[in-house]
Amino acid sequence: MRRPTALDTLRLFKAAGPVLAQNEPWLSMASLVFSVMEIDGVPVPVPATEPQIESLIERLGDDGLAAIAETMKDEQDSHGPESDLGNLPGTLS
């Protein structure tokens, strides 16, 4: 897994199209798949279309998506917003 970048987010909006880009629940689920780099040691390309996003969601299933969401939540909790207060990410304190 990796944290999706700003470019990933832009590509997600492009893949979603104008209608789905307004659908927050769909975007929330779709954004999880942009963090997947590999499954069982096999590289996974970043999805570029709505069918590719849906295919990866189907492949991951509920358990896979829940695991990604939990990992991202744990990572965010361990780097709470107060840790970046006053500093750009990567700036020495």
Could you walk me through the main structural features you see in this protein, from its secondary elements to its overall organization?
The protein has 93 residues and is mainly alpha-helical. It has one domain (6-73). It is built from 3 helices and 2 strands; from the N terminus they run H-H-E-E-H. The chain has helices at 6-20, 24-33, 50-78; strands at residues 38-39, 42-43. It has a two-stranded antiparallel sheet. A hairpin with a 2-residue loop joins strand 1 (38-39) and strand 2 (42-43). The longest helix is centred in the last third of the chain and has 29 residues, at 50-78. It starts with 5 loop residues before the first helix and ends in a 15-residue tail after the last helix. The model has no long low-confidence stretch (mean pLDDT 84).
SS field, number of helical segments = 3
C-alpha-based Rg, rounded? 15 Å
Please state the overall shape, judged from the principal axes of the Cα atoms.
Answer: globular
Annotation, overall tally of beta strands:
2
Summarize this entry quickly.
58% of the residues lie in helices and 4% in strands.
Features:
93 residues; mainly alpha; two-stranded antiparallel ribbon; 3 helices
Protein topology:
Elements: H1 6-20, H2 24-33, E1 38-39, E2 42-43, H3 50-78
Antiparallel strand pairs: 1-2
Helix pairs in contact: 1-2, 2-3
